[in-house]
Design goal:
The chain is an alpha+beta fold. The chain is built from three helices and four strands. Helix content is 31%, strand content 18%.
């Protein structure tokens, strides 16, 4: 298994854990691939040869849970719950 194949496998596992349904990874360049969630459109990028200041797996789909169409943003709900009225 090549490095790019291993990184794509790890990225798919991470995205699936977050609830995403990812499209097949497309190879944009020799050592760089990307995919998009079919539900929410968040992206995951894989770089098999990152520069010293880059990371190999990145994107919103790796870091955030999948938001279905019409589902409210959880951060907005938290803000509304913690809002205090000042009289």
């Amino acid at each position: 298994m090549t490095r790019i194949q291993r990184l794509i496998k790890e990225a798919k596992e991470s995205c699936t854990f977050r609830g995403h349904q990812m499209k097949p990874f497309s190879h944009k360049y020799k050592k760089w691939s990307s995919s998009e969630c079919m539900v929410c459109g968040m992206i995951c990028n894989v770089n098999a040869d990152p520069a010293p200041n880059e990371i190999d797996i990145c994107g919103e789909a790796v870091a955030l849970h999948c938001r279905y169409e019409g589902e409210p943003d959880p951060m907005e709900t938290i803000v509304e719950e913690n809002r205090f009225e000042i009289y």
